[in-house]
Amino acid sequence: MNIPPPPPMGMPPDGMQHDPNGMDPQQQPNNNISLSLVIHRLVEQSYNTLLSLTERLSNCDDLERKKSLVEYLDSTREKFLKLLVLMKWSEHVPTLTKANNIINLLNLEDSYFRDAADLLIHTKYNLINARAPMYDIPTAIDVLTTGTYQRMPTDIKKVIPPPQLKQPQIDSALERLNDIIKYKLFFSEIPKEFEPIQIENGKAHITVKNEYDACLSIDGGSTEKSNWVLLSLNLYIYSKRDLDGEGPIKVAYENQMKAVLERVQNRISSSQQPLHELHNIIHHLCISSQMDILASQVENLKKTILKNNIKCIIGKDQSITVYYWIPEDMNIGNNPNINANHFKIYIDNQKIKIAHYPQITHPKKDNYFNIECLNIGTLLLQAIELNAYHRVFTLYSILRNTESSSSSSSSGSNTVGNINNNTKPLLGSNGNTSLSQLQLLQQQHQQNQQQLQHSNSFHLNDIKLIKSSRFSDENVSSDNQDHLPTVLRIMLYGCKFLDITVNFQNGKFTLIKSSTNYIELTTLLEGKLNSNINEIKSIVNTFKLKSLLSCFEDASLFLGLEYFYKLPLHMVNNSAIIDIFTENNYICVRLPKETELYYLLISIKPNTFVPSFYLLLCKLMPKSTMMSLESIIKLDSEYLSNLLKNCKCAHSNSDLYNFQSEIQYLLGKTVQLSKQKINLLQAESILKKENIKYQSNDECITFFLQQQGNSSSGGSSATTIFTEQSLATLSDFLSPLSPITLNYSDSEQLYHLSFRERPFNYDLSDFDDNLSTTSSNTTINNDTGIVGDDSISTNTKLNIKSNFNYSNGLWNFKYFTTNDWLVNFYHDLVGISKITNIATQLLKQIETNPIYKQVLSIAYIKPFEVDFIYNNEISSRKTLIKIHLDKKNNILLSFQPSPNPFKDFFEKEINQSPTNDISNVLRHIIASDELSNFLNSLTSNLPYFFLPLEIVVVPRSCNQVRLFYKNSYAIDIKLLSLEYCAIEDTFYSSQFNPKQTTRLNTIYHFHTFMEQKTYLQALDNPLGHRTIWSLHVSMLSKTLNRIFIYLHSLNTIKTISGLLKNFFQVPAQSTAAYYRCTSEYYNIAASIRDYQSFEIEVASKDLANNPYPNQQDLAILGQYFKKKMNQLSYRLQTITACIHMLTLPPTVLYDFIRVIVEYARGAYVEIALNTTASINQTARESFIHKKEDQCVFFIVRFLFLARNQPFSGTNTSNSPTSITTPAISSSNAPTAGVIYEQFVDMPTMYCYNPQNKYIQFWDKVNTQINITTAGNQPPPPPLPIQPQPLSSIDESKKSVINTIGSQTINEFNNLAPLSSGTPPNNIISIYIRNLANVISQFHHNSPTPTTTATASTSTSTPTPISTINTNSNNNANTIISPQGNSISPPILNNNASSLNSPTPINK
Questions:
Q1: Which residues on neighbouring strands pair with residue 93, listed in sequence order?
Q2: Whose CA is closest to 388, among 364, 369, 362?
Q3: Is the pLDDT reported for residue 1355 higher than 60?
Q4: According to the model, what pLDDT value does residue 1227 have?
Q5: Among 127, 568, 740, 1296, which is most exposed with the fewest C-beta within 10 angstroms?
Q6: pLDDT computed for residue 1392 by the predictor
Q7: With contact defined as beta carbons under 8 Å apart, do 1365 and 1342 qualify?
Q8: CA-to-CA distance for 1074 and 1375, rounded, in angstroms?
Q9: Are the CB atoms for 281 and 267 separated by under 8 Å?
Q10: CA dihedral 440, 443, 447, 448 (to 10 degrees)
Q11: Phi, psi of 77, deg, nearest 5
């Protein structure tokens, strides 16, 4: 027996040890599954799936059941095939089981070995920390017994450093050392070159300016015998740019400094006067080194940009001479005595000195040239800068003297004259005096500028000296105050400037302009200035002129104007014009939006710089690009002079930037003046053409509406507008001697004409109170005609339309600057004159006529409009009448709140009157107000049984109007007086009119109706007939309402009789409200109660042979058609459908009556009796009976209340039962007044032939049916209609209707026959019920308006071929065709139009 070894450390005991997978080694997992368990589970799963499939398929159609069953069988077969393969494979299971057990055993042993190795390694690392430490027993005994460690080595004391000195000890030693140094210096002789010696930290700091500095201390001897020790030495023998860098001089200095220190230390140690010896050695070393350094820099200087303009000579005495600004024609060679600009560096009395030839002085410093920088390049720049300053100051003095002499003679004595190239500035020997003189000259310059500012606004003489960084050494950091101003800045116009400086290479003057223009001119003027320095004045004036012209150039660009410096003009022999264009001191600006070529020429005076403005008119020469100068006008006005005076050029820094805006403002105003001048010239030409007397100046034109004598040009004096006749029409409003002022507004670009004249000759003082109390703040209500408190405001001041203005007797007119402004002005004067005349007449009529004064009141008077109010005391209604003008000055009328039909005749009568007399029109307005109100209410608010355009109003004259009803009947209304009017049948009045072309009908028994219903007495016409009735105006509205209701009744009976004659026999004569007829099966009576409500009564002739429909069913049919006929829309179609339904055989008619009764209790399904028009005329009808073919064409309409609302009210019972015949009332029908959002029409054709019954789709578009003749009459030939293809929706409807129709026929044939006395089976009800089930099922299951669904098929419901999705938002639906294609056009009704909104049948 194998005893297992004990577990290693850290492992659980034997009873708790587990394998890596966490399982007992004796109980390894068994991954085998029993084959019987697999078979049992597969059989159980297949059985359960079959049971659930059986329960689920009971509610599915046949196709889905078959599909689900096939899927189940396929999946089950696949599972059992897998089981079969598994069973065949199970024969080899024992062998595989043994192999698996062996593999598992080997894997288990391998895991044991791996675990044992891991545990051994883990135990090794754990034992390391378990060792016992080596305790230091002797040391522990010593510490415990003696308290110290006694076993340290003795040699450790040798390596321990001594303790550091404390800070008080250090301070004391340094203080004593400082005292010793002071004592030694007190008894030593100190050189005078030393600066004050500073002693600190035991050191003596010695400094000699610009040479060296050193630190000395003493050695360890006694006070008297101690020697000086040189601690450090720093020589100033390198340039300042090497102080912070790693230049070559500093590198060589650092490498040799140790040897220098040792040699100096040896010399001072053996000397009797060590400090003098120190200074002499180091001073000689510094001087020699500095001269050597400067000499070495000469070669580098020849490599700079100045190499061609400088010459360096090194003398035998170590002196260095540098020549600069050497002319190209000068040959210096080695001759040092040449008279050229140079400076010399030499040694004198052991000191380095610098001298400049010719001698120049610095204005602030006596010793300007020094050797501090030790850089020959910097010395050269300092010499050039000082020389350039003197040259620039010479120019400054010349310009200053010129300014002083031009401003005043008193200031001329302080200026400097006779200055040439070699003239030096007037500066003293010391800097203070020179600086004070310069400040004095600058103050004098400012005073001169202030004096010139008041004399000339364009004077600009702002000059100053500024500093430049060109002459400073960028490697030497120095204060900017050390540099001299070497640039002469001359301020130009418009923030521009001219800088004059000296070229540091050749010493010539250089012109630097702020802009890059005039480069060639700048080069030319530089040569002129360098040849003669006194040309500076002319050069500055040239640049000032160009800068001022550029300011006008920039202003032109800012204003969007074209500018030119040259114009291709053909000059005439005129000296004045030639002088303007000879010099280049002008700029031309083209004036935009002008028909002619107009240019604004801006000429600058060379001395004063004041611009002058000229207006040029140019024309293109034929066959040439040149232009001829037609005219030139100088713009010179007081306003322009003030603008020039107020234009401040540049007197401060802010003015520099404001000057350009002032130039822009000046140019803009000048352009406005130019345009004003141009338009005034155009106006003058028109006045000359009309030969009108006028006077003109720079700002306006004054003219008179009268002819002047013979024109100066000898032309004709005839005028085309203001003739004697036309002036006579204006004499009451405007006198020919009244002056009219014309000026031009550039902001509006319009002519302004103004004059003073009293507008009205009639006195308004008597009506002021009436106006303010009658119409103040009133409005007219459009519904009631009563004046409220809002908008009709009375204002005795004259309000003007947009282009006119009037205030306190001053008239202002505005016109465009076209050539017809004078014609428009005359047109407006004529209009004002007409309104003035009408207003005068109106005021006079109100004053003189007491009736007018009672009912008329002025609202307000305008120059082109007069408004007054008519107050109808009979109806308490107010009407606002406006009299205004059109574009041709014809008088127009407008009425508020409702129009007047006689308006055109009123306007015609006023306009045809020579004096625009309104007396007759006022009388007609008052008389026609009541009739006008009725006519407006008749056309706008028709009764519910009148359709639009059935009643047409045709005015005949100012007091007569004709009313047409359906173009068949007409009546004439004539106003007899202000209180009475006459009504006449137009049929009789038109007999006397030979031009009458309309065939009207006489109103049937009109005289009887008028006498019995309106109780009016007739007036005989010329033929002796009672056709004219007189009545009071107050009774007109009520009487006309009754007449038109009577005409409506006549027309309806006439329409019914015309249709019934085609299908029924007419035994009796019809009346205006009653009609009777008979057919093969029924007696029919149609009547209109009270000439308004339509009623129809139907009675069966043979109830014994045809018990169905019985009398109660026919009464229901009559009530149904009564409700449909009383609806407004599609009345004729409803009548036609009613007549065709009454031609059906009793059994078929009974089927439709049962449908009406069955779906009258809330189901939203109906037999449609109306539809919209189509290409085919027969497609307009919705119910047609074709008796010879035994076919009925009808439409089943399904109504929907809202989107996704389930279809309700459908009878889904399969077995036909007897139905009751309740009366149709509002309680049985859907809610009255409900407007459905959608409907779907299903056009159906039903053949009731007992031998061949069928139901199929009715193609309304392509079906030819005669609907106006009886079956026994030969039909007329069909209309030639091009066959129209069916839409995709109609194709889907066709498939649905044909399929459900065939199923309905089969279902009807399979029904058991009913016993005698029982109502027959209703095939129409079965068809509609099957169709409704499809529509309701889809509408109930549709989740969204655009979702497409397919209804399931079962044995109890018909199978739909297509599904219709109805959308309530966009009136669209989606149809699934039999092929499965999705179609999304709008849902169509019976003629493929769109969704409609029908009303419930009980509305």
A1: none
A2: 362
A3: no
A4: 33
A5: 127
A6: 32
A7: yes
A8: 48
A9: yes
A10: 70
A11: -60, -40
Place of tokens 């519910």: 944
* Residue length of the chain: 1403
CA distances from 437 to 38, 441, 480, 507, 1186 (A): 125, 6, 22, 26, 130
Classify the C-alpha dihedral 898-903-906-910 as positive or negative.
positive
Separation of alpha carbons 359 and 342, rounded Å:
10
Beta bridge partners of 320: 314, 345
| Cβ–Cβ under 8 Å, residues 407 and 448 | yes
Rg of the chain's alpha carbons, rounded to an integer? 63
Q: Crossing angle for the helix pair 1006-1013 and 1036-1060, nearest 10 degrees?
A: 140
* pLDDT above 80 (res 740): yes
- Contact (Cβ atoms closer than 8 angstroms) between residue 1095 and residue 1089: yes
| Residue type, position 287, single letter | I
Comparing CA positions, the residue from 1213, 1203, 1194 lying closest to residue 1333 is 1213
- Pairwise CA distance, residues 611 & 601, whole Å: 10
> What token pair was written down for 139?
């040391």
DSSP letter, residue 1246: E
DSSP reduced 3-state for 743: strand
Cα 374 from Cα 287, distance rounded (Å): 11
Write phi, then psi, for 1087 (nearest 5 degrees): -145, 160
Cis peptide before 1109 (omega within 30 of 0): yes
Rounded Cα–Cα distance for residues 805 and 823 (Å): 19
Give the residue among 1356, 1359, 1323, 1319 at the shortest CA–CA distance from 1338. Answer: 1359
Distance CA 884, CA 1372 (A): 52
The per-residue pLDDT for range 1280-1320, each reduced to its tens digit, is 556 778 888 888 888 889 999 998 988 888 887 766 666 77
pLDDT in tens, 878-897: 999 999 998 888 999 999 88
H or E segment to which residue 312 belongs: strand 310-314
Q: Is 522 left (phi over 0), alpha (psi -120 to 50) or beta?
A: alpha
Cα–Cα distance measured from residue 1303 to residue 1309, given in angstroms and rounded to the nearest whole number = 10
- Residue 238 CA to residue 290 CA, distance in Å, equals 7
> Are 493 and 659 within 8 A, CB to CB?
yes
Nearest to 646 by CA among 456, 854, 826: 456
- Identity at 881, one-letter amino acid code: I
Q: Which of 1212, 1119, 1115, 1078 is nearest to 1158 (CA)?
A: 1212
Least confident of 51-60, 1078-1087, 1352-1361: 1352-1361
Q: Of 478, 485, 520, 514, whose CA–CA distance to 498 is shortest?
A: 514
Phi, psi of 203 (to 5 degrees): -130, 150
Residue type, 948: P
Classify strands 586-590 and 597-604 as parallel, antiparallel or unpaired. antiparallel
1007: Cα separation from own chain's centroid? 70
pLDDT at 765 over 50: no
Q: Are strands 627-634 and 569-570 parallel, antiparallel or unpaired?
A: parallel
For residue 880, which of 864, 863, 860 has the smallest C-alpha distance? Answer: 860
The H or E element that residue 867 is part of is: strand 865-872
Q: Which tokens sit at 258?
A: 């140790």
SS3 102: helix
Q: How many CB atoms lie within 10 A of CB 828?
A: 21
Question: Does the pLDDT of residue 1111 top 80, yes or no?
Answer: yes
Helix axes 274-301, 248-269, angle to 10 degrees: 160
